[in-house]
Write a structure and sequence with these properties.
- By secondary structure, the chain is an alpha/beta fold.
- It has helices at 3-7, 14-18, 20-38, 63-71, 87-90, 95-108, 119-130, 155-162, 169-177, 226-236, and strands at residues 48-52, 75-78, 112-117, 135-141, 186-190, 210-214.
- The protein contains ten helices and six strands, in the order H-H-H-E-H-E-H-H-E-H-E-H-H-E-E-H.
- Strand 1 (48-52), helix 4 (63-71) and strand 2 (75-78) form a beta-alpha-beta unit.
- InterPro entries: AB_hydrolase_fold.
- Keywords: Hydrolase.
- This is Alpha/beta hydrolase.
């Protein structure tokens, strides 16, 4: 994605941002009602899954998603690195997250899948670029890993809490290469009605094992929306060493307006 193209990406419209809270409550309500149906989602081999929280949140915010994945039989791990404040939590060069991945792989004897919400997904992709040997796949949920780093409703708060500058050279470098496919299978789940970050920042270039999955969802709904939970379960259920694009099936198919190999916009 070129710098010129990235500059044309704008933060979400104010209306979508203002609707984030009521949409999150509604999606959580749908999740409660849909729980029995969600337990009929595809099930995998029970491998290790680490879930990374979003910016300025901690493991409590991903509790519902982790509970669901555990009910499907996975060995689910929180990230256990406190509040997600980017390098302050993950390590200046991602060393804290790398150590956590290695510890989980050693404990379980299997490769680890990463599921990262928002900033957690950005960190998950960076971890995969650093060392993918212990990783099985990466799933991001509304994660702004490319495009225009200022195209978010939280850019000022991010700078205040982390001390990082979204216009810094390091941030520019991260975003410039962020859309490149990883060396492990990856799925970027995004929503055009995301009220926090521009959806164009949340999609990857695609190849034979890289996809972008569009869903109707709020930004905070990525950790409470039943359709997102179903898609994550579907992706995790694929046997190790195999991969095929996501195909909407089951009771939540209508939440996915389009899917598959979306090109970079």
């Amino acid at each position: 994605m070129t710098a010129k193209h990235s500059a044309g990406i704008r933060r979400p419209q104010l209306g979508w941002t203002m609707l984030e809270s009521p949409r999150f409550v509604a999606e959580a309500g749908m999740l409660a009602m849909a729980w029995p149906m969600l337990l009929r989602a595809p099930r995998g081999d029970g491998h290790a899954v680490m879930v990374l929280p979003g910016f300025a949140t901690n493991d409590a915010m991903t509790g519902l998603l982790r509970c669901y994945l555990a009910r499907l039989g996975y060995a689910v791990f929180p990230w256990e690195l406190g509040w997600n404040l980017d390098q302050h939590s993950a390590g200046e060069n991602g060393e804290h997250v790398a150590a956590r991945i290695e510890a989980i792989a050693a404990e379980t004897g299997h490769k680890v899948s990463l599921v990262g919400w928002s900033l957690g997904g950005v960190i998950a992709r960076e971890a995969a670029r650093r060392d993918h040997g212990a990783l099985r796949q990466v799933i991001t949920l509304g994660s702004p890993f490319t495009g225009n780093p200022r195209a978010t409703s939280l850019s000022t708060l991010y700078e205040l809490l982390t001390g990082n500058k979204v216009s810094s050279d390091s941030t520019a470098e991260r975003y410039s290469r962020g859309h490149h496919p990883l060396l492990v299978p990856s799925s970027a789940i995004f929503s055009r009605s995301d009220g926090i970050t521009a959806w164009e920042n949340c999609v990857s270039a695609t190849d034979a094992r890289t996809e972008n999955i569009e869903v109707h969802c709020s930004h905070f709904g990525f950790v409470s929306n039943p359709a997102v939970f179903w898609a994550v379960a579907d992706r995790l259920a694929q046997p190790e060493g195999t991969w095929s694009p996501f195909v909407p099936r089951g009771p939540f198919a209508g939440f996915f307006p389009e899917t598959g190999h979306h090109p970079i916009p």
